[in-house]
Automatic annotation (TrEMBL):
Residue runs in coiled coils: 192-243
InterPro entries, A to Z: Znf_RING, Znf_RING/FYVE/PHD, Znf_RING_CS, Znf_TRAF
Keyword Cell membrane: no
Protein name, per record: RNF41 ligase
Domain named TRAF-type: residues: 101-144
Species per Swiss-Prot/TrEMBL record: Zapornia atra
All residue ranges annotated as the RING-type domain in the record: 18-56
TRAF-type zinc finger span: 101-144
Amino acid sequence: MGYDIERFVGYVNEGLLCSICRDVLEDPLQAPCEHAFCTACIHGWLVHHSNCPEDRQVIDVSLLRPLYRYMKNDLNRLQLHCKNRENGCEMVCSLESIDRHERECEYSQIPCSNAGCTAQIERRNLDGHLAVCEFRSRECPNGCGYTILSAEDTQHNCVAELRTELELLRSEMICRVEEAKHEMESRLDSQRRHMVQKESILQNEIEELKSQMSRLMSDVRSLMAAERQHRQELEQAELEKREL
């Protein structure tokens, strides 16, 4: 649907009206036959038809194109009233800037920001509503630090709330202690397995060193026996030399 023509100030050229809804073009598209439509209007039309609603020429969604630049410029220069005119807004601005104004308009209806509240309030009155909204939250005036809704004032009990908070903290602490305990046990098990593995490796190395030492001692004894044999042979040779 287009913009209500009654909102516009002054004359609006016929070529800037949607051929389907007959309001001022909104997000316009143009057919090859140069008839213009609101995007929503022509898409809805083509769901059930395959021709232009003005001259019945065959058209398809793929044939639709943006409005000619000069027509787009004429459209953007049109002046119109804010949609909140009935609520008191007197702003008149160009079609090109109307969306930006209406997003920020002080007379626009916006939802209350408090959870649970379904009220719609004019933007300019929002602060006043928030100050008295029954769904507004605030800190307990008795000093317990709990955030309460105005609707819960009569049910709020500082002692009960603090006791609940304490129980939650105790439960959380117990969980954290258990997690730390499991993590420490896991680390100890890992270190224990690592130490056992290192001990096994060291034990194997010791056994290998013992085996090497045993072979070395055996070699030393063999060398000493060979030296004694060699010395005896030298002494025998010396005796024989003297006799000769």
